Amino acid sequence: MGSINIKLFVVFLLVFFIQCQSQEVQETMIPKMSNEFEKITIENSKKKEDDRCIETPEERKEIFSASKGGYRLSIYYENSFYKSDKFYYKNGYIKNKSLSFNMGSPIGILYHFDKSGKLIKEENTDEGYSFTPEKIVEYCEKNKINLPKGYHDSGYQTRVLKQDFEGKKVWRISHQTAGDTIVEIILDGKTGKELQKKTVPFYNP
Q: Contact, 80 vs 104, CB < 8 A?
């Protein structure tokens, strides 16, 4: 009986470990992005001039906006630090699309299309960033920096931007601490080394 109990206990631990791993992957889920042509299909898009939030049964929210230049569709996923950003020409054909941090810069490949729908360029936005987006997530978790998952319509949310700083490609992380205090951290894009950390005035555009 003792041997059977030990085996059952081992099986239980394995199942628990797999569930935890699956949950962790789900929590940091990276949406898929293809290089395929798309055409916008949102109803009444020609008449819509303000932001529009659409809730879907797939646990995501789609934020749509229209302007003189065309259309933008941002898709936020409930259990992800990343969203899909898609820009369309006035004719509804895809102009460019990529993934990005929910409040931040593009990551991975940015796909560019001409007005006829032809793919004309694949831009690697991570070029020069050996310190990857996944490592940014790990850094934030380690330093108790709250990265937003999904869509938030109010409140200050942590921003993760790719920028140039003193001739280097860097990550700029801005997050709120106590009250209205915003801490800005600059990390080397290649090594992840902390180059600067300072308090900056509160802003929430």
A: no
Reading the block at residue 131, the tokens are 């310190």
The DSSP bridge pattern shows strands 159-165 and 168-176 to be antiparallel
Contact yes or no for 170/188 (Cβ under 8 A): yes
C-beta separation of 63 from 73 below 8 A: yes
Ordered DSSP codes for 85-150: EEEE-TTSBEEEEEEEETTB-EEEEEEEE-TTS-EEEEEETTTT--S-HHHHHHHHHHTT-----S
Closest CA to 160 of 143, 179, 136: 136
Q: pLDDT digits over 18-38, tens only?
A: 344 333 434 457 888 999 999
Element (H, E) at 88: strand 82-88
Written as six digits, the tokens of 184 are: 């800005």
The CATH number that domain 133-200 falls under is 3.10.450
Distance from the Cα of residue 140 to its chain's centroid = 14
Domain layout of the chain by residue ranges: 52-124, 133-200
Q: Which two tokens stand for residue 7?
A: 């085996």
Q: Are 170 and 164 in contact (CB under 8 A)?
A: yes
Over residues 133-186, the pLDDT tens digits come to 999 999 999 999 999 999 998 889 999 999 999 999 999 999 998 777 899 999
